[in-house]
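Mods, move this if it's the wrong board.
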Amino acid sequence: MDVHNDAAYAGQGAYHRGAERIAEAGHKFEGKVGRRMKTYIVGLLLLMWCAASAQTAPRGASSSPSAPTQADKDQAAKRVEIRHLIELTGAANISADALRQIISPLRAGFPQVPDEFWDTFIKEVHSDELIDLVVPIYDKYYTRDEIHDLTTFYQSPVGQKTIKVLPKLSAEAIDAGQEWGRMVADRAMRKLRDKGYDKSSSMPSADSPAGQ
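Not the wrong board. Structure tokens:
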């Protein structure tokens, strides 16, 4: 077996060991958590682990790999620059905060799940793994020159301010969107009531103008 296949098997072994650790965590709490909830959570963890492993695990290669071309070197340099851009904007940290916001209502909604499980879940999510997954997406939609332009912008005073205020701006925009949604729903309900609709029926009442 050659060195490249050794690396591939090593990567697969690391993946399986990680999957086994997640499965063991699920079995540990099986007595405390309903089977359906445990299956959902362990499945979610395995999905995240597989996605990260698919990006980072070594793949088998031919026994005589060719030397990297200039295009290969340029592509590698571009991906380094993309990673720098993502780190510069703090996008990974923002995503980690978003994950904590998702975990909080789950923790509150399933009090029977031990805190140790949620704490372990969060610790298993590393921002570097997320960056590895996001870099190819940036690579798909931006040219190298555009990555340079974005980096220049985020290094400028207004770019630094954008990085600083974006989390708060996004949160307030979400709140505004929710308020707007309530306003639209209230207007729609008033119009439906004016036409004779009520909460217990999907049809207008018989004595309403719409029902005549």
